[in-house]
Each structure stands twice: as structure tokens, then as C-alpha cells.
Design a protein that fits this description.
By secondary structure, the protein is an alpha/beta fold. It is 30% helix and 24% strand. The strands form four sheets. Strands 2-1-3-4-11-10-9-6-7 form a nine-stranded mixed beta sheet. Helix 4 crosses helix 5. The radius of gyration is 26 Å and the shape is globular. The structure holds xanthosine-5'-monophosphate.
């Protein structure tokens, strides 16, 4: 699905910084559409008319070596304002004849204090009495490029912000996109509105009608299928496409029997009755259970579930005639091109399964209306489509479901025990207004039994592990700090109400070194 290129935008050229996504977020939060692009793909852009500004990100490359990452110099001839951040500044300096040195003495990591040298539109209203900025560099500009002036400096770096105001080219060594930089947003405001003179037009809720119109134009009278999991991404996709083509969207919900207690049936009813979706519920729990019998290896579990899911989805979709499109909840972070620009394959930790990874051989064309949005933007879109808070702000839930929260082999009995414990845990989080403070929480069952005493009798039952983490994007996480009262209460409730559990433990590991899920 190709979206029309009609909007004013800021192009962010990604040299592989860990925080490039944040630049895109800052720009969008200020009401301007931003797009991240791999420098190697710049030549594919035929028309720069709607590009109102360019930001060059930071990155691991160094202009002090001959094979540094760069951009075609004719970008600077297009009269589009340019802001370089960190590596971006160094690249600008290099391309315009400045000098950059790698120096252990001059390197700055973390906080640095910044001082004004000269009035500049880029740094208008930025300085306060003591501004601290966030730095992460070893290379530094040591000689100004031709026709540039210094606008700010730090103790270690005399050329920390520079400009060529005539040609509207700016560079800062620090990272205005991270929250540790005081007043960093002001830099973006100035760049966008004073320098690029772009208008504040981007607003995610206002994208709804455009997206609906585009889906309608693309799909026309054809049918679309969608695997609906009840998570926020697939739910928003389904509501959006339903608004565009109504009954020509057919949603398939595959009940793997590995979902939270009652959640799937409840969600199905909501989609069918409240949102009026054309949705088919496929109960496949038996086949999932039988295929998972005696399987305790986490990767095997994941593979079995992923493959079965695809098989069942394919089987069901073949029953529907004249389907031409498959709708997926692909998000912007999934497709940001920087993945390949930074090179280096990442090591596989787990084989993720989600309903987004449906088979290519189905020969369907893809509809991915969320592919330019971040998760929190999808939530706002969901709200504007009338999606309930409950679904919009639901914690992430992994495709393989409870199978990876029952460590070791899976039995029906264990699934029921776990569903009951998890239900109590999530209810208590809601009752104590903690659910929305936590990024993800769940109960898991460990593959050991321990001895306990209840009444006057000995028990020999399972250990329930509780996990609750705070996180921004699931890449890193910390455990949530519950009060002792909450932990006392939840342990008591689970042991008293769930037959099969006589011990509760709380997981206090962060990610890394642990992961969020147990398998
Ligand atoms: P880990 O365990 O890798 O999890 O720290 C990070 C985030 O990803 C979720 N997760 C999955 N999501 N399919 C998914 O859709 C999967 O196979 C899968 N495995 C883990 C996990 O719940 C957490 O939010």
C-alpha cells in the first residue's frame, strides 16, 4: 500500500544513532510530519518539493576515516534548511572544509554545560542561566568550515553549535532530542517554525479520514482479510479498514486456547457487537494443545505455534472467496530503514511470532495503514476511531501467549491454573490503579513444585511467578516497584484462590540481562 506523498515533511537522514526515532517523535509532537530515511536511499527520492527541512542524525560512523557515511553534496544545493546533530554536525563540517579530530581528551559523554556565543535563530529562547545538554561523542569539530559561525560552546568543545545562516545550515554536537538536554525541544521548534517555516499541520487524529480514503481508493470493491488478535495494533487496523470498506473486511480471530482467561471471547463479542465487524472466531485450542504436548523447549514451542497459526489462518482464509488483500498492523518502527543502514545482523534471542508475520505465499497484496505511525500514535488513532481504553491501553501480549509463560511442558491443568492466577493479578493491578503505570504485567508458572502447608495438611504444588515491568518500547525494561502491602496481598489472594499454587515469587530482574517473557 503506497501512501500519497502530499504532505509537508521533515526528512530525517539516519546514520544509525540509537535515538534517531526520538528525533522523529519530537518533530511529530510539534505537529509536523517526519520521515526517517537511510542515507543510501536518498537517491530514490525524485522530488523534494514537500521536504521542508532535513535533519542529519547522529551515528557510529566517523568522518576521520576515509569510508565515512555521507550524503550527496547536491542535497545542500536544494535550498532546504539542514540541521546536523552530533555525527550530522561533523559531516556538515567535513563536507564544507572544517576539521574534525578524534580525541580522548575532548570527548564528552553525558552531561555538559553549554554557553551562548552568538545570537542565532536556532537557539532563540534556548538558553537559561545554566543549560545542560546531553553529549555522546569522541570526535569533535576543531576548525570551523568556511562561511560558518560558532553559536555555542562547552568547556571541552569550542565549536559545539555552528551555523551558516545565509544558507540555513546548522549543526549541534549535543542531542536536543533526548530529555536529558534542558529545553532541547526549543531547538526543534526554532528549526521547524523559524528556519524551515513549516506549518503545524500534522495531527494523528486528523489522519483518520485520509487513511480511510486511501484504503478505499486502493482496495476498491475487493475483499480484505485481517488476523485480529485483540491487541491494539490489529484492532486499530480492523476498525480503520472497516470504516473504509465495511463488510468487505473479514477478520479472523484464531483462538489458540493460550490466551488470558475469558479475554478472547470477550474481545470477540466486543468486535462483533459493539464495533460491528465482520469477524469469524476459529476455536483451534485442541490442535494447539495436542501439538504442544510434551514440548518444553521454548524455541520449539514458538515455532509450533507460529506455524500452526499460519496454517489455520490460511485454511480459514481459503474458505472466503475473492480475497485480494491482507491487512497487517505493521508499525513505523518495524520498517524504519535504519536497520540496514547500521549494518550488522543482530543476534536472535527469541523467534517472535505475531499475527503480522503471515505467509508470503498466500499471494495477497498487503494493506498496512499503520506503517507510518509509532505505537502511541496508533493509540491516539484508536481512540479517535472509538476504540475503548481497555483495548487501546492494553498491555502487550505475545503471539505465543501463555505457552511461553508456562515454563517447560504445557498441560491443560497448568493453563487453567495460570489463567486463574493471572486474572487475579491483573484485577488487583486495576483495582489499585497500577495497571496504567506498568508497561506489561503477567503471571507465569514455573516448572517446579514445592512443599507448603495449608490448614494442617502438607501441599506439594506449583510456584507462580509474577512479572511487572516499566519500559518505553520493550527493548529494555526494569521491574516495577510494588509496595510490600501490595505484594503481601497478591501473594495471599493467589495462594488462597488458585488451587495448584502454594508459593508466589516476584521477578526483580531487569532487561537486560533478563528478557520480559520467561521463554
Ligand atoms: P522479550 O521477552 O523479548 O519481550 O523481552 C519483549 C516484548 O515482546 C513481546 N513478545 C512477543 N510479542 N510475539 C509478539 O507479538 C512474540 O513471539 C513475542 N515474544 C515476546 C513481549 O511480551 C514483550 O512485550
Amino acid at each position: 500500500m503506497q501512501f500519497q506523498e502530499i504532505r509537508e515533511k521533515i526528512l530525517i537522514i539516519d546514520f544509525g544513532s540509537q535515538v534517531t526515532k526520538l528525533i522523529a517523535r519530537r518533530v511529530r509532537d510539534l505537529g509536523v510530519f517526519s520521515e526517517i530515511i537511510n542515507p543510501n536511499n536518498l537517491k530514490k527520492i525524485k522530488n523534494f518539493d514537500n521536504v521542508k527541512g532535513i535533519i542529519l542524525s547522529g551515528g557510529p560512523s566517523t568522518v576521520t576515516k576515509s569510508n565515512f557515511q555521507t550524503i550527496p553534496k547536491n542535497i545542500f544545493e536544494k535550498k532546504i534548511p539542514i540541521l546536523g546533530i552530533c555525527y550530522g554536525l561533523q559531516l556538515i563540517a567535513k563536507l564544507f572544509g572544517g576539521k574534525i579530530k578524534s580525541s580522548k581528551k575532548k570527548r564528552e559523554f553525558g552531561r555538559a554545560f553549554i554557553f551562548k556565543k552568538k545570537q542565532s535563530n536556532l537557539m532563540k529562547n534556548f538558553f537559561s542561566k545554566k543549560n545542560s545538554v546531553w553529549m555522546s561523542h569522541e570526535d569533535a569539530v576543531v576548525k570551523l568550515p568556511k562561511n560558518f559561525k560558532v553559536i555555542a560552546f562547552t568547556k571541552s568543545s569550542k565549536l559545539t553549535a555552528i551555523e551558516n545562516s545565509k544558507n540555513k545550515i546548522y549543526g549541534v554536537q549535543f542531542h536536543p532530542e533526548v530529555t536529558h538536554t534542558d529545553n532541547g525541544n526549543q531547538i526543534f521548534k526554532n528549526f521547524l517554525f523559524l528556519i524551515c517555516k513549516v506549518k503545524q499541520k500534522w495531527n494523528i487524529a486528523s489522519q483518520k479520514n485520509r487513511l480511510i480514503k486511501e484504503v478505499r481508493e486502493i482496495v476498491q470493491k475487493d475483499k480484505v482479510i485481517c488476523a485480529l488478535s485483540g491487541g491494539v495494533d490489529s484492532s486499530v487496523v480492523a476498525l480503520l479498514i472497516n470504516k473504509a470498506i465495511k463488510k468487505n473486511l473479514i477478520c479472523i480471530m484464531v483462538d489458540t486456547g493460550l490466551m488470558r482467561k475469558d479475554e478472547f471471547k470477550y474481545t470477540y463479542k466486543i468486535f462483533k457487537n459493539r464495533y460491528n465487524l465482520n469477524v469469524k472466531l476459529v476455536n483451534a485450542s485442541k490442535i494447539f494443545y495436542s501439538n504442544l504436548k510434551n514440548i518444553s523447549n521454548p524455541e520449539k514451542k514458538r515455532k509450533i505455534i507460529g506455524n500452526l497459526f499460519i496454517k489455520i489462518f490460511e485454511r480459514e482464509s481459503k474458505k472466503i472467496r475473492n480475497v485480494k488483500y491482507l491487512a497487517q498492523g505493521t508499525l513505523y518502527p518495524d520498517i524504519i530503514e535504519s536497520r540496514s543502514s547500521t549494518g550488522g545482523k543482530s543476534v536472535k534471542i527469541k523467534s517472535h511470532h505475531n499475527v503480522g508475520g503471515l505467509p508470503k505465499k498466500m499471494n495477497l497484496k498487503l494493506v498496512e495503514p499503520l506503517k507510518e505511525f509509532f505505537k502511541d500514535e496508533v493509540r491516539i488513532l484508536g481512540k479517535s476511531l472509538g476504540l475503548s481504553n481497555e483495548i487501546c491501553y492494553r498491555h502487550p501480549f505475545p503471539g505465543p501467549g501463555l505457552a511461553i509463560r508456562i515454563v517447560g511442558n504445557i498441560t491443560l491443568e497448568k493453563i487453567q491454573i495460570l489463567q486463574d492466577a493471572d486474572y487475579i493479578f491483573i484485577n488487583e493491578l486495576n483495582k489499585n490503579n497500577l495497571y496504567n503505570k506498568i508497561w506489561q504485567a503477567y503471571a507465569a508458572l514455573l516448572p517446579i513444585k514445592t512443599v507448603g502447608v495449608m490448614g494442617d495438611s502438607r501441599t506439594y504444588e506449583y510456584v507462580c511467578l509474577l512479572r511487572a515491568v516499566t519500559s518505553e518500547d520493550g527493548m529494555t525494561a526494569d521491574y516495577f516497584h510494588f509496595t510490600k502491602d501490595f505484594l503481601d496481598n497478591i501473594s495471599n489472594k493467589i495462594v488462597n484462590n488458585v488451587k495448584g499454587i502454594n508459593r508466589v515469587v516476584y521477578d526483580i530482574s531487569s532487561k537486560p540481562p533478563s528478557t520480559i517473557e520467561l521463554e
